[in-house]
Write a structure and sequence with these properties.
Helix content is 37%, strand content 12%. With 459 residues, it is an alpha+beta fold. The protein has a domain at 1-103: Arc Repressor Mutant, subunit A. A hairpin with a 5-residue loop joins strand 11 (416-421) and strand 12 (427-432).
Length: 459
């Protein structure tokens, strides 16, 4: 599912983000009207969307110029200017009505984004400015843009809406390229990058894994993956999902299965390795020339498979150590491919590729078993009745912190909780009714938020 404006993107090429936002808001109906052929006027629309009237007027002019919206004039009795109103053009309205009913994973979030609701969005980390220091008006005496008043701007709402419309139930956006985002929003490359940083800085995007290009992937180019924060207080919604963290004491921290793979590949590149490799030589040859960003994407792919394995086999995973899941091999083979010329020196290149796939299946099962053992110790939680998604802790080392996103929230826990394991293996539960109540340093350390970039803090 994407935005309602997607069928009109070719016509909207010359329209800015504000015009696209207004069209999306109107197309979705609600208090803005217009979706069923109703007329609407500039001033009431600006008031409903909390936008400057001049910006709305200019945006409607852009939509009229491309033929998506019609401008109507009705003469007044007596003197005075004619009354101007707008409506979605009949052809555009027929296009909207002809579209199949979109199934959105987050309809309430999208409804709030494309309405007049105010969305607070404070930059996280630094102390907030006092009211006196805040820019309420510009130097020209006009109202300051929403971003200057710690409110989500129209352009950022449109961008976040494009991400939300393509997110899964956990808020994970995969497969959406920067080109797709520019086409949907009308933003240029520089503005898109800045606004994505801004959304991370205010906590609406938890984190992201940059896309890469590599011959080991079937698609060659893998787009960036974004983890949206569906529990952000700016939405004003009580989240159905939950965030659960498992935290080990330092004395128990070890390298996880993927850290071992990365260590073995690095040792293979610069022999002699300090430790004996646990990774088959076929896998080492396969990954020997890849850069660190490729490993970040590979880790994410394996985590995605492990999340599905946990959701499917939470109960029998601990007993089944073979990892003989046919669908798992197919899933991995759909993501990876042997690079051109790989195995040319092998007598049986197919055997080498089969060994690589078997090892990655083994890695996925090992990752899933570790998460099952760690979180399953809290045996009072009904993990079997929910969907599970592993949230990568990008800045962490080893397996000190593991994070699961759960949909829907199990009744046994609150929206946000930490399972702290003691040196003796006992679990202590720390709970918060809302994720925003958790101490900020915990949220940064657990990968629930990304520390804001310095350039964002200075803006």
């Amino acid at each position: 599912m994407s935005l309602c404006i997607e069928p009109f993107l070719q016509k909207l090429t010359d329209c800015g983000p504000e015009a696209r936002f207004i069209l999306e808001a109107i197309a979705r109906g609600g208090s803005c009207g217009g979706s069923d052929g109703e007329c609407f006027r500039c001033k009431p629309l600006a008031k409903q969307l909390h936008m400057v009237e001049g910006v709305v007027s200019a945006a409607l002019g852009e939509l009229v110029a491309v033929g998506v919206v019609e401008r109507l004039e009705s003469a007044l009795a007596g003197k005075g200017r004619p009354k101007v109103s707008y409506q979605i053009a009949p052809q555009s309205l027929a296009t909207l009505e002809g579209q199949p009913s979109p199934h959105a994973s987050h309809p309430d979030h999208l409804k709030r984004l494309f309405s007049g609701a105010d969305i607070p969005a404070e930059i996280l980390g630094p102390q907030p400015k006092s009211q006196k220091e805040r820019a309420i008006v510009t130097r020209l005496g006009k109202p300051a843009p929403p971003g200057a008043r710690s409110r989500l701007s129209i352009c950022n709402r449109l961008l976040l809406g494009a991400l939300l419309a393509n997110a899964d139930q956990f808020g994970v956006v995969a497969g959406l390229s920067n080109l797709d985002l520019r086409r949907l929003t009308g933003l240029d490359s520089e503005s898109l990058s800045h606004r994505l940083r801004r959304l991370r800085g205010v906590g609406l995007i938890r984190s992201y894994v940059p896309g890469v290009t590599s011959s080991v992937f079937c698609t060659k180019k893998v787009n960036s993956t974004y983890f949206l924060n569906l529990n952000h207080p700016g939405y004003g919604l009580s989240g159905e999902g939950a965030v659960l963290v498992h935290w080990l004491p330092q004395s128990k921290v070890r390298n996880d299965a993927f850290d071992v793979l990365l260590r073995d590949v690095q040792g293979f590149r610069r022999p002699p390795a300090l430790n004996r490799a646990k990774t088959p030589k076929e896998v080492l040859h396969f990954l020997a020339r890849e850069r660190r960003p490729v490993f970040n994407v590979l880790r994410l792919m394996l985590y995605r498979c492990a999340s599905e394995l946990l959701s499917r086999h939470w109960f029998d995973l601990a007993r089944d150590g073979s990892g003989d899941y046919d669908w798992l091999r197919d899933r991995i083979e759909a993501d990876l491919q042997p690079p051109l010329g790989f195995g040319a020196g092998e007598v049986q290149p197919d055997r080498a590729w089969g060994e690589i796939l078997r090892h990655f299946c083994k890695l996925v099962v090992g990752i899933a078993q570790t998460y099952r053992a760690r979180f399953g110790a809290a045996n009072w939680i009904g993990f079997d009745s929910v969907g599970l998604c592993i949230l990568p802790v990008l800045e962490g080392e080893g397996d000190e912190i593991m994070v699961l996103l759960l949909q829907p929230r199990p009744v046994e826990i609150s929206t946000c909780a930490i399972l702290r394991e003691s040196h003796r293996g006992e679990l202590a539960l720390e709970s918060w009714g809302e994720e925003s109540e958790m101490p900020l340093e915990y949220r940064f350390g657990c990968g629930l938020l990304t520390p804001p970039a310095r350039r964002i803090l200075k803006s």
